[in-house]
Amino acid sequence: MDRLNAMRVFTRIVELGGFAKAADSLQLPRASVTILIKQLEAHLGVQLLQRTTRQISLTLDGAAYYPRCVQLLADLEETEAVFSAARHNPKGLLRVDMPAGVGRLMVIPALPQFTARYPLIELEIGLNDRTVDLIREGVDCVLRGGSALDESLVARPLATLDQVTCASPEYLQRCGTPRCLEDLKGHQMVEYFSNSTGKRYGLEFVVDGQLRLIDLPKHVAVNSSDGYLAACEAGYGLVQAPYYHVARQLKEGRLIEVLRDVPPPGMPLTALYPPHRQLSRRVRVFVDWLVELCAQSGNGFYREDSRG
Question: pLDDT tens, 75-95?
Answer without folding.
Answer: 787 676 666 555 567 888 888
